[in-house]
Amino acid sequence: MTKDHDVLVLGAGLAGMRAALEAARDGADVAIVTKVHPIRSHSSAAQGGINAAISETDSWESHAFDTVKGSDYLADQDAVEVMAQEAPRDIIEFEHMGVIFHRGPDGRLDTRAFGGASQARTYFVGDITGQALLVTLYDQILKAGVKVYEEWFATSLYLEDGACRGMVAIEMITGELHLLRAKAVIVASGGLGRLYEPSTNALICTGDGYSLAYRAGAPLMDMEMVQYHPTTLAGSGFLMTEAARGEGAYLLNSLGDRFMKRYAPNKMPSGVKRRYFELIRSGVRGSVAARRVGVSLSCGCAGMGICPQVPTWPFLIAASSVLSAPDWPANFCAMALKAGPTSFWSMLWQEKQSLPRAAASPPEGVSLAAIATATQVSRAKPIAPSAEKLRRDFVGIMRIVIMRPLKIASEITGW
Question: Which residues face 148 on adjacent strands?
C-alpha cells in the first residue's frame, strides 16, 4: 500500500515530535513513523531538565560558553550559539503548551544546578522532565492533526533520482509492507546506546536511523563521539541523575583520586559538609560537630545536637545543619514524631522547597545525613514506647529500601 505526505518524520521522541509539530504549524501534511507508541520513546527516560538562560542574572553568552567549554571546544560553536539564544523562548513555549515546570515560592519558574554550568539554569519537572515534555508534545501533535504510524518499523529509505522521497515500513501488527512517500524526510530515530553493555538506554535504541541512512548513501559523521552518560552505581547499574554532580557530588577514579580537580578546580564542593559528617559518623554530638566546623544548627531544639525528643532520628538534625536555613520550622522534631518515618521524607523535602531559594541548599544534604548517621540510628535508645515503635519502623525501612544502595554509594563516594 502506498501513502503520500508532505513531510515524513522517522521517530516519535522529543526531536521527532517537535519537528513534526513545527512542520504541521506551517500547513504541511505531516506523518510520523515510530516502532513504539510515542509515549514509550526513550526521551521519557530523561530526568534532569533543560538548560536555558532565562534569569535576569544569566545570559545566552554564558550558556553558550559553558556548553562549548564542556565539550572541550569540540562542539559546533555556531549550532551552540543558536541553541543558547533560542532556549529561553523554547522553555516558555513548552510552559505555555502545558508542561508544568517546577516553580519557586514566588511562583516563578525555578532552576537547579547541573554539572558544567556556571550557574543554576536547569528548568525541570521533578525527575520526570522527559516524560512531561513527551506527553505534552504528543497532545500537541494530535491537536495539530499529525498522522502517527504507530508500531511501524522502517526497513529502508525510498530514493528517487538520488533524493530521499520516503521510506518502506512494515506494519508490525499485520506484517504488511507499505511505501510511504513524502517531499521531505526527517530522520530523528534516536541513538545506538544498546550497542554497549551495560547500558541504561531502552532496548529500542539500536541505531536504526544510522543504518537506514548509511545504506541509502548518506555520510555519517562524528561516530567516535559516544557519550558515556549518565552516572550509575557500580555493579547494579542504578542510575544517578546528573543533578547529583551539580549539587556537589563528586567522582573518583580507580585510584580513589578526585580527578575532576584537574579539570574544574573552581567547581569542587566545600569540605565543611564532609568534615561535619565525618565527626557525626565518629560519634561526636551534632552540636559539638557543628561548632567545630563553624556551622549553626537551626533546629527547634536550639542546637541540642542529637535531639532528645527523636532519638532514633539524629540525621534530621544533621540535615537541618547542612540545609542551614535560618527560618527552619521551630516544630522540626515535632513534625518528625507526628509524621512517622514513611512520610517524613516527603514532608522534609516539601518544607525545603517552601524556603527562599537563597536559604535552600543542595538536597543531597538529606541523603548524606542519612548515610552519616545510619549506625547511630541502630544504636539509639528509645525514651518512650512511641519512639521505640518509630525506631523499629525506621530501621526496618532503612534496611529494606535505603541501606543497601546507600552502602554502595558510600563506598564509591567515600562518605
Answer: 32
Query: What is the value of pTM for the model shown?
Result: 0.63
Q: Where in the chain is the domain with CATH 3.50.50.60?
A: 2-215
Using DSSP bridges, classify how beta strands 231-232 and 239-240 pair: parallel, antiparallel or unpaired: antiparallel
- pLDDT value at position 18? 97
Q: Which residue has the cell 503548551?
A: 97
Residue of 262, 369, 240 whose CA lies nearest to 307: 369
Contacts by 343-351, CB closer than 8 A, 24 or more apart:
344/313, 344/316, 348/316, 348/319
Asked if 247 and 113 touch (Cβ cutoff 8 Å), the reply is yes
Low-confidence ranges of the chain (pLDDT < 50): 270-273, 276, 286-287, 289-333, 336-385, 400-401
Kindly state the cell numbers that stand for 100.
508544568
Q: Give the integer Cα–Cα distance in Å for 84 and 23.
A: 22
CA torsion sign, 289 to 295 to 299 to 300? positive
Q: Give the CATH class of 2-215.
A: alpha beta
Q: What is the DSSP letter of 103?
A: B
